[in-house]
Specification:
Blueprint: H1 11-17, H2 32-46, H3 48-65, H4 68-81, H5 92-97, H6 105-120, H7 133-150, H8 157-165, H9 174-188, H10 190-193, H11 202-215, E1 232-233, E2 236-237, H12 244-252, H13 262-275, H14 282-295, H15 309-322, H16 326-339, H17 347-356
Antiparallel strand pairs: 1-2
Helix pairs in contact: 1-3, 2-3, 2-4, 3-4, 6-13, 7-9, 9-11, 12-13, 13-14, 15-16
Length: 378
């Protein structure tokens, strides 16, 4: 620059010098905690081998720079992250990574924020409306139909009816047919309907069994097995595979602190959705565990109609990326009230009424979701 060369320190030298004691008003080094955070970030971004390579570079530099004590600290931090020695980490992220079951500290902080919001005030909760055996079957069919449609398993409503209620899977789409049957089975079978999410270690086995039952006809997605590769939706990256078990366990331990019913239902749904523990079927599984929390207290299960899909996903993104739970909590209370406004004993009648409410439409530009008790009467 302006005829002069500019030199930057190597990453190893940068970290060593930032572990040096710093005195005075304007500190020249950020200190151990900041270096630990940087190492954790490097490990996440580049992998464990990058830390091992960095350590060897620092080892050769430490003598020339006369920073042997700083190298010992750096060596200890890297060894702790790589779990080759007893943990000496002090940051929240460091303690999470080196726990017996490593977990995602940022996600746990997000779960704690949602739990606090759900505890802060009572939620409006609609009571169960599908009380007869026939109404329960019809409700479960519509719940499964819309839940699969959200995930891209799209059928005409009459095609879905043939598959689910008349036992006629589409020969041209056998696996898609089994997807809608898998969700229906768990939405209508009492043992699944009333299975609330466990807290702590048992949540692992419980979710794996539930996922296996749901996705058993798709061996290519490894039903019941936690993912081995990180998954994402758009710009949202979900929990690292190595942190899935610990994050599930830690997050589920917040469940007893949240009021039963809609509040706990929303928490369980977001817990599973945000971790995304399996290769496929996570969204459908998240909504099933949510609805189980509602059924067990005699509250109305929630249907997410096609026209509500974008608002539903937008609220999840707002919570996931910005840490704002208010839109999600508000939207889910509204859609539960909407779901509870229908009578489910006559399937033809409820489908027709949902169509008049624009439930099956896709474009929020051209349509709005109508209230079955108000807008249709105007």
């Amino acid at each position: 620059m302006q005829g002069r060369a500019i030199y930057f320190p190597s990453e190893a030298r940068c970290l060593l010098e930032n572990l040096s004691p710093s005195r005075g008003t304007f500190k020249k080094a950020v200190g151990r905690e900041a270096v630990e955070s940087r190492l954790l970030t490097l490990c996440t971004a580049r992998g464990e081998q990058a830390l091992a390579t960095l350590r060897e570079a620092a080892r050769s530099l430490a003598q020339a720079l006369k920073l042997p004590k700083e190298f010992l600290v750096l060596d200890s931090l890297i060894g702790s992250i790589l779990k080759t020695r007893l943990s000496t980490l002090t940051t929240t992220q460091g303690r999470a990574l080196t726990a017996a079951l490593p977990y995602d500290a940022d996600r746990l902080e997000l779960f704690e924020k949602l739990a606090a919001a759900l505890r802060s005030q009572p939620l409006k909760q609609a009571e169960e409306v599908a009380c007869t055996p026939k109404a329960m079957i019809h409700f479960a069919f519509l719940e499964s139909y819309f839940s699969n449609f959200i995930e891209g398993t799209e059928f005409d409503i009459e095609e879905a009816r043939e598959i689910v209620l008349f036992g006629k899977p589409m020969l041209s789409r056998p696996k898609d047919s089994h997807d809608i049957l898998g969700v229906f089975r768990q939405a209508v079978t009492p043992a699944w309907m009333h299975q609330v999410l466990a807290s702590g270690i048992p949540v692992e086995t419980q979710l794996r069994k539930r996922h296996w039952d749901q996705m058993q006809e798709r061996p290519e997605v490894e039903p019941g097995e936690f993912k081995l590769k990180r998954n994402r939706a758009g710009n949202t990256e979900f929990v690292e595979p190595l942190l899935v078990r610990g994050t599930l366990v830690q997050g589920s331990m917040l469940l007893p602190t949240i009021p039963a019913g809609l509040a706990r239902a929303l928490f369980t749904m977001f817990l599973v959705s945000e971790i995304h523990p399996f290769n496929d079927g996570n969204g459908r599984l998240a909504r099933l565990v949510m609805n189980s929390e509602l059924s067990v207290v005699g509250a109305c299960r929630i249907i997410i109609p096609t026209l509500f899909r974008e608002e539903y996903l937008d609220c999840l993104r707002e919570l996931s990326r910005e840490g704002n739970p208010i839109p999600f909590i508000s939207a889910m209370q509204r859609i539960q009230a909407w779901t509870a406004a229908f009578v489910y004993d006559d399937l033809d009648a409820v489908i027709e009424k949902m169509k008049r409410c624009n439930a099956f439409e896709r474009s929020l530009v051209q349509h709005r979701l109508l209230d079955p008790q108000q807008d249709l009467n105007n």
